[in-house]
Amino acid sequence: MTPDLFYAFTGLVLFITGLFGIIALQHLLRKLLAFNLMGSGTFLMLVGLAQHRNGTDPVVQALVLTGIVVAIAATALALVLIRRYYHLAGRVSLERDATDEGRP
Amino acid sequence: MKCRGLVSLLLLCAALGWVLVYSLWSIAFNPVGGSLPEQVSKAMADSGVDHPITAVLLNFRSYDTLLEIGVLVIAAIAGISMARLPSLEDPAFRTHDALLDALQRWFVPLMWLVAGYLVWAGAHQPGGAFQAGAVLAATGVLMRLGGMPMGFLQPGYLLRAGLILGFAVFLLVALVTAVVGDAFLAYPAGTAKYLILLIELFLTLSIAMVLLSLFVAAPVNDAPESQEGHQ
Question: Which residues lie in coiled coils (chain A) (predicted)?
């Protein structure tokens, strides 16, 4: 098991953690963080696998760099949307349930 | 009921995790023909730059980068239209802190210098438009937090031009190469270096504008928001 493969498997764990989070968590900000975790996991998997196979791979690195920039823009847009939703609806989660108000 | 749902979700995630572990393992240890790094290093001489990642980003796969800046511009426009503010640059948001002010006088020019260096360095070492754009955007965030006036963030031609400039220049180069040259985004031999530098310079500006306007677009004051919500 090379360090590069270890990166790939770390990315896998991050992806699964994020997937669990995005379904299980109610708070929209937490969902967004979980979504970002999934994205970071995917990037790690891509880079790790490619490096394990044939060393530093500029194609995959460029792809991931593009992905990171898009992910930042998407996160910022999601934050703007969440803030707007909070201002209009006064809620931080999509469903109205009892645990909504108690969460920080 | 909720507990049972959580447990089944955990089980589902664990199952998916094992499927992914298995596929990752089989991808990692099964040989496939062809190596992308080899192909890239073979084509490096024609790319016009010395750094393989920049070559992939702005020459071999420049289509991706063109679409990426398109996505960024769309995100910025959506973000700005969500912000119900009369102006993105409001004097009421400015703070006046003597220490921050003094610090900025040193930091802002230095950060501009770093951004400029990063664009130039992208041709032969890690760096490039996106890193430089991020530094430039961070400078803008610092300027905004420190209360420096930034008139260009007011809705108007300057903001629109700044947002669209990178995409427009990139698209223009693509169209010109399509009409005059061989194909969409296939740079003519010998001009690749200059075209890439031109695109990167404008990309840096636009990326910084996009990131900064998305940062600024998050509504800050509550008063007009709640009024509008009741209408």
Answer: none
Rounded to whole angstroms, how far apart are CA atoms A60 and B89?
39
CB contact (8 A) between residue A77 and residue B226: no
- Clarify whether residues B19 and B86 are in a common domain: no
In percent, how much of chain A has pLDDT > 90?
45
Question: Quick check: B48 and B193 in contact, CB under 8 A?
Answer: yes
Tell whether B13 and B41 lie within a shared domain: no
Check pLDDT > 60 for residue A104: no
User: Do B61 and B21 reside in the same domain of the chain?
Assistant: no
Same domain assignment for residues B114 and B182: yes
Given A20, A57, A76, which is nearest B75 (Cβ)? A76
CA distance B111 to B113: 5
Cβ–Cβ gap A62/B57 under 8 Å: yes
> Residue B183: which residues within 8 A CB-CB, separation 6 or more?
B177
- Which ipTM was obtained for this model? 0.79
Nearest residue on chain B to A19, judged by CA atoms? B13
Q: Is the domain of B19 the same as that of B73? A: no
pLDDT at B181: 74
Verify that B116 and B220 share a domain, yes or no.
yes
Question: Which of A69-78, A90-99, B98-107, B220-229 is least confident?
Answer: B220-229
Other Cβ atoms closer than 10 A to A76: 21
The two structure tokens encoding residue B62: 């420049």
Q: pLDDT tens across A10-23, in order?
A: 999 999 999 999 99
Indicate if B116 and B176 belong to the same structural domain: yes
Q: Which residue of B has its CA nearest to A14?
A: B17
Query: What residue ranges do the domains of chain A occupy?
Result: 3-91
Is B98 in the same domain as B198?
A: yes
Structural domain of B25:
1-30
Domain range A3-91, CATH class:
mainly alpha
* Dist CA B31 CA B20 (whole Å): 18
- Interchain contact A79–B (C-beta under 8 A): yes
